[in-house]
Amino acid sequence: MLTLDDALRLLDAARTASTQIGVPMAFAVMDPGGHLLALARMDGAPWVTSDVAQGKAWTSAAYGVPSAAQKDKMSPMPNFATAITAMTHGRFTPQTGAVPVYRDGVLVGGLGGSGGTGDQDEAACAAAVEACGLSTTA
Amino acid sequence: MLTLDDALRLLDAARTASTQIGVPMAFAVMDPGGHLLALARMDGAPWVTSDVAQGKAWTSAAYGVPSAAQKDKMSPMPNFATAITAMTHGRFTPQTGAVPVYRDGVLVGGLGGSGGTGDQDEAACAAAVEACGLSTTA
Amino acid sequence: MLTLDDALRLLDAARTASTQIGVPMAFAVMDPGGHLLALARMDGAPWVTSDVAQGKAWTSAAYGVPSAAQKDKMSPMPNFATAITAMTHGRFTPQTGAVPVYRDGVLVGGLGGSGGTGDQDEAACAAAVEACGLSTTA
Amino acid sequence: MLTLDDALRLLDAARTASTQIGVPMAFAVMDPGGHLLALARMDGAPWVTSDVAQGKAWTSAAYGVPSAAQKDKMSPMPNFATAITAMTHGRFTPQTGAVPVYRDGVLVGGLGGSGGTGDQDEAACAAAVEACGLSTTA
């Protein structure tokens, strides 16, 4: 599992990556149960990014894959995507911008971002996971 | 920030623009946090326009752009759009017809309309912002 | 029915009454179908008052009585009150602060306020209805 | 307004206070519009505390008072409390454990905690606000 110190280090590393990319973002760390562990919204990021980052992080934590994989999978099945989003009360967010977090091959959570393009959000999250000595794959 | 007098002037100017366009509309003014400041639904506009105008105004206030920009951005990402709409409890409305409101370069709210075509709604809102000495861009 | 001019006159009179009472409030005018016709939130009133005023106005428009009557009626039936609130998606608000609006004995809408005590909210609304030559009773 | 650095300092101070009290908690910082700025859930705190802390912080940010004040106010009005909770999609949380955050007399957000008793949660939040040179009153 992720400790709060782990989560705060992830947020700190994600902020550093976001600053290098040049776009303010919000980042959310979810535990493997899809519950919020820590969140930070950078100055200048619209407040709605706090919600979107959570949705993406939830999606990676729930499935153990980058949220982009769910975007691709759901692309030809919009009605199914809508159903999962509705049944999870708006949590399921099949859009690029989050990665799962693995430690020693075990899924320990998800890290999601919002504020840049989907690719920028994912790049910042992936960089943060690596910087913390964790992995985005099992 | 917008005072109530500002908001009522915006609504009054939007009604004037709507009358010139020739279609009754509802108009909503949101504060920068996405909360309703003032609303007016013109005689002859269907009651659901009050809800739609709020959704569009919310979208402009939340992102600081015309809601049409979110329509364009979300066009290839319907599942992502559905997720944001769901996570915001139906507020996110990626459709033409609202503009952000800036004063001295600061985002102070959003003005959204409904009742005409999206383009007519947006034209009325943009005209109102200009008539009040405010701006739709930073 | 209420025209938008009627609704704006009600809001204007309610603001005057609120100023005399000395507490900033938000006011909402609902049509007889429970749909928002006009709203104004005074400077200094918390943004949540925009939502609460709508709920009270809805309650008066839906039942044709002051929302305080629903407060009294529902007091011994909390589970029933909760059910109506839930089935109406948070609209039913059994609390003092709104009055129905009658013209020539016909229910034409509801006027609700929020920001002061319930009694202050209701007093401002009732004063506004009277000032506009309308009635709070059939 | 609160910067993210302000928010992270508040969370850090709240964790220190929580450790002194001896109970792990989650803490949430809301901006004045009721949108999440930062959150941290301490090791050992149940995951649901992340949601509860947000609800309390929202309540303090929305009304500019300790959430305990809304608990006291709503105690004789359970049906009204239910209505506000429903209309705000579960955000309104009239329970002890959060304080508003003022800077130079201006409401800049809310800090809420969950995990201990309501009084412990509020004590940790109030201590954090003071430690950061901010105030819980205007």
What can you tell me about this protein's structure?
The structure is a homotetramer of 138-residue chains. Chain A is of the alpha+beta class. Chain A has a single domain (4-131), classed as Beta-Lactamase (2-Layer Sandwich), CATH 3.30.450.150. In chain A, 48% of the residues lie in helices and 19% in strands. The first copy, chain A, has helices at 4-21, 48-63, 67-74, 78-87, 118-131, and strands spanning 26-30, 36-41, 98-103, 106-114. Chain A has a four-stranded antiparallel β-sheet with strand order 2-1-4-3, sandwiched between helices. In chain A, a hairpin with a 2-residue loop joins strand 3 (98-103) and strand 4 (106-114). In chain A, helix 1 (4-21) crosses helix 5 (118-131). Chain A is globular and about 35 Å long. The two termini of chain A are 14 Å apart. The mean pLDDT of chain A is 98. Chains in contact: A-B, A-D, B-C, B-D, C-D. Chains A and B meet through helix 2 and helix 4 of A and helix 4 of B.
